[in-house]
Each structure stands twice: as structure tokens, then as C-alpha cells.
Specification:
Helix content is about 85%, strand content about 0%. By secondary structure, the protein is mainly alpha-helical. This is Flagellar secretion chaperone FliS.
């Protein structure tokens, strides 16, 4: 029996990438972790769009569900609601994204994925700018 096959499954490259991501997550600061989650949601939305266009309902649903899970279990809880108006607006934006994703899947409205992608890009860009500024200022 091939040991590498039994340990890493059919795709050792995927296993290597997974270990790399796990290492990145475990060593990430809270700010970096939020960026990782935003990028993961973006990846899921991009994949969902491809599966939408290819007619693969199961894979589309799987990626949309994963994106919603990251939003609901990762992004929203990572925001301190007591941090002010910006934090509250981020939470509301994440909740709206999750609702758009659900509707995109259930009502087969691919255009809602555009809305989510735009929202994600805006939030990700703003977040990266804010964290870069904070880092540059020594905070």
C-alpha cells in the first residue's frame, strides 16, 4: 500500500495547500484572520458563480453554504459590536451578504452574487487599508 496515498488521499497538492492554510490561520493576528475569512468568502462566491453558469446545482449550493457559514460563524462573531458605528455597519453588511447568498441560491438569481462580490471587494479593500494604516502607525 502506498503510504503517501493513504495519508494524503488522492491529491497530495490539495493536502499541502490545506496544511499551508491551517498554518496561516493558526499564526494569524485577529486582523489577518479577518482578511483570510473575507478572501475565503470571495473564493466561495467565485466558485459558486462558475457552478451557477455550469448548471451544477449541488456544487453551487455547497459553495454558497460554505460562504454563508464563514460569514455567520466567522466574520460576524469576529466584529466587536461595541466598537462603534463602523463595526455595527460591518455586521449589517455581513448579514445582508448572507441573505443575498441565500436568495441567489434559492431563487436562482445569479445577479445577487454580483452584489455580494461588490460588497466583499469594498469591505476587503477598506479593511486592508485600515489595517495597513494601523500597522504603519504602530498600532
Amino acid at each position: 500500500m502506498n503510504t503517501a496515498y493513504s495519508v494524503y488521499g488522492k491529491n497530495p497538492v490539495k493536502a499541502y495547500a490545506k496544511v499551508g492554510l491551517e498554518t496561516k490561520v493558526l499564526s494569524a493576528s485577529p486582523e489577518e484572520l479577518l482578511t483570510i475569512m473575507l478572501e475565503a468568502v470571495q473564493s466561495c462566491v467565485i466558485k459558486a458563480r462558475l457552478y451557477f453558469q455550469n448548471g451544477d446545482i449541488a456544487k453551487r449550493g455547497e459553495n454558497i453554504s460554505k460562504a454563508i457559514s464563514i460569514i455567520k460563524a466567522g466574520l460576524i462573531p469576529s466584529i466587536n459590536e461595541d466598537a462603534g458605528e463602523v463595526a455595527k455597519n460591518m455586521i449589517l453588511s455581513f448579514e445582508l451578504m448572507a441573505q443575498h447568498l441565500l436568495n441567489a441560491n434559492m431563487k436562482q438569481q445569479e445577479a445577487l452574487l454580483d452584489t455580494v462580490e461588490t460588497m466583499l471587494k469594498d469591505i476587503t479593500d477598506a479593511w486592508k487599508t485600515a489595517t495597513a494604516t494601523a500597522t504603519a502607525n504602530g498600532k
